[in-house]
């Protein structure tokens, strides 16, 4: 089967006249030709929601740990990306050694998902998951605070699926997953089309404020999973909505369906979302994969490259069988994750619930 055609925004037509960017530092970079629009200049959005206001309670001692981490890490995002990748690798290796509970959960998940692999290979995969997450910390912070550093680093396959659905006046439910470059993936998507996202509020109020405002410049709307009115409104308005159904939220709103060959509690929200909106033009449901193609050891003078893949829409979805629908979604996400399993967050307890409630596999 012929691979989908890739679209790379860095390859502009000779007939296209692009405005010179305002960033004088960008023009001096040997990797980016003069006149290349920046990420912020080419960002697509329908609207921008108001930022959450800062609250005085965020200065209380219980939040000082987060402030300390920010004070340590934020200055580092102004280093060259090559150095940030190196620091991210060191951070990931350190976390692998110190975060024993997360390391154990990761190894348990990999043992369940890849029983055919020898233990030593699964351990190497687990270490790489932490390395990719360490790099992902820097990728996410750069996405929030200096996105132009990722100018001219992305290509995409399957963009036509979103365009065709939008041209038909349909909303798009874009099924993502918790990849280690999560927020960067969202920003790269908005180089091609505006997008809203669904999110689950953080339990820590200061962290929730930080994440929400960090994502504010990426997404048009950030819709809480509890805010059905805003969700229905976005679907009726024909928006593209990013939703990640790859975590275990129990069986109150989910069913058991295989994921990497393991029975897993799988949320059925995607099929409910697909029923919302205009019945004559129902939302198109498709999946998104975000992938860093560059090795984690970025060579000197080289820029990272990221690739986005959008699958064709799911035909005959939803069906009358919610288990079959959940299985279908899991199969699609699994196939995308297998492109590079170490770029998915295996440290989440994906298999913590079984048909009879909580399991003890993580003890």
UniProtKB/TrEMBL annotation:
GO cellular component terms, semicolon-separated: plasma membrane
Enzyme Commission designation: 2.3.1.241
Molecular-function annotations in GO: Kdo2-lipid IVA acyltransferase activity
Membrane topology: Single-pass membrane protein
InterPro entries associated with the record: LipA_acyltrans, Lipid_A_LpxL_LpxP
Keyword terms of this UniProt record: Acyltransferase, Cell inner membrane, Cell membrane, Lipopolysaccharide biosynthesis, Membrane, Transferase, Transmembrane, Transmembrane helix
Described function: Catalyzes the transfer of an acyl chain from an acyl-[acyl-carrier-protein] (ACP) to a Kdo(2)-lipid IV(A) to form a Kdo(2)-(acyl)-lipid IV(A).
Record PANTHER family: LIPID A BIOSYNTHESIS LAUROYL ACYLTRANSFERASE (PTHR30606), LIPID A BIOSYNTHESIS LAUROYLTRANSFERASE (PTHR30606:SF9)
Stated name of the protein: Lipid A biosynthesis acyltransferase
Species for this entry: Psychrobacter frigidicola
């Amino acid at each position: 089967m012929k691979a989908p055609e890739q679209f790379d925004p860095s390859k502009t037509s000779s007939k296209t006249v692009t405005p010179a960017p305002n960033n004088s530092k960008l023009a001096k970079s040997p990797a980016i030709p003069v006149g290349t629009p920046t990420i912020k200049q080419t960002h697509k959005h329908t609207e921008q929601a108001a930022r959450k206001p800062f609250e005085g309670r965020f200065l209380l001692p219980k939040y000082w740990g987060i402030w300390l981490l920010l004070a340590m890490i934020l200055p580092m995002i102004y280093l060259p990306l090559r150095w940030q990748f190196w620091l991210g690798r060191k951070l990931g290796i350190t976390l692998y050694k110190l975060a024993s509970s997360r390391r154990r959960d990761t190894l348990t998940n990999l043992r369940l998902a890849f029983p055919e692999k020898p233990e030593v290979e699964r351990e190497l995969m687990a270490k790489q998951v932490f390395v990719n997450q360490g790099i992902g910390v820097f990728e996410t912070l750069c996405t929030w605070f200096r996105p132009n550093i990722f100018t001219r680093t992305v290509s995409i396959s399957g963009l036509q699926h979103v365009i065709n659905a939008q041209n038909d006046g349909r909303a798009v439910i874009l099924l993502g997953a918790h990849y280690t470059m999560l927020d960067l993936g969202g920003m790269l998507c908005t180089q091609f089309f505006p997008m809203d996202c669904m999110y689950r509020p953080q339990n820590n109020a200061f962290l929730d404020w930080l994440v929400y405002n960090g994502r504010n410049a990426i997404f048009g709307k950030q819709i809480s999973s509890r805010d059905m009115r805003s969700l229905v409104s976005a679907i009726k308005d024909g928006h593209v909505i990013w939703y990640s159904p790859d975590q275990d939220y129990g069986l109150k709103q989910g069913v058991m369906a295989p994921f990497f060959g393991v029975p897993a509690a799988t949320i059925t929200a995607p099929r409910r979302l697909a029923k919302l909106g205009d019945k004559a033009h129902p939302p198109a449901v498709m999946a998104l994969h975000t992938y860093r193609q560059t090795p984690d050891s970025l060579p000197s003078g080289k820029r990272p490259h990221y690739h986005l893949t959008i699958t064709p829409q799911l035909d005959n979805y939803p069906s009358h069988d919610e288990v079959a629908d959940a299985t279908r979604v899991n199969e699609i996400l699994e196939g995308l994750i297998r492109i590079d399993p170490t770029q998915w967050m295996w440290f989440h307890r994906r298999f913590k619930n079984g048909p009879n409630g909580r399991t003890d596999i993580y003890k």
